[in-house]
């Protein structure tokens, strides 16, 4: 597996590279967003670890550019811990968020988790065929989504959320339920993280996200697809 580590702090890049190389990952290194996009265009990268604050092209803009064509998992790094920064990154299409200073072993564990789900989508049972709910069509074999015949580009996390809800149509999932099923971890993130992903999905699949046809909120309880 090929992992791209992007941070303007070379010591951090080297440190992460050492731990990932020890797990037999092939590590590519970049020190700003421009370098990262060049590497992405020339190599088959399976996951990117991306710092937010960088010169020339910051992490958020780099991520937004990446999401125009690629859906690989992206773990954001930042020295900031405020919810606003986390929400900004998740809204831009990040799959995970790690605050500096971080435990290298935890970062490696997150990398393994995202790569495992990216390559197998193993947190949701594979089934053949399609899930069709009115104009919403989810192909569970090639992991694609269409609305009224038009392709919808989702990140891996967004796809897993919508497939989970669609497979369990009408069932209400709390933010904790979604996290445990999609991330497959016991430690639950704040409700805001799930809310951001849900809002992002709505913006992509709903004609009017404020009056959703498919992905609905059950206030005080959770989310469901009707």
Q: Can you describe this structure?
A:
By secondary structure, the chain is α/β, with parallel strands linked by helices. It folds into two domains: 2-120, Rossmann fold (3-Layer(aba) Sandwich); 130-225, Arc Repressor Mutant, subunit A (Orthogonal Bundle). The protein has helices at 10-21, 33-42, 59-66, 83-92, 104-120, 156-167, 175-182, 191-205; strands at residues 2-6, 26-30, 47-51, 74-78, 96-99, 130-133, 136-139, 144-147, 150-152, 215-218, 222-225. It starts with a strand and ends with a strand.
Q: Give the averaged pLDDT, no decimals.
A: 86
Relative strand content: 15-25%
- Which second-level CATH architecture of the largest domain applies? 3-Layer(aba) Sandwich
Structural class: alpha/beta
What's the short story on this structure?
The chain is α/β, with parallel strands linked by helices.
Protein traits:
single chain, 226 residues, alpha/beta, Rossmann fold, Arc Repressor Mutant, subunit A, 5-stranded parallel β-sheet, 41% helix
Secondary-structure map:
Layout: E1 2-6, H1 10-21, E2 26-30, H2 33-42, E3 47-51, H3 59-66, E4 74-78, H4 83-92, E5 96-99, H5 104-120, E6 130-133, E7 136-139, E8 144-147, E9 150-152, H6 156-167, H7 175-182, H8 191-205, E10 215-218, E11 222-225
Helix pairs in contact: 2-3, 4-8, 6-8
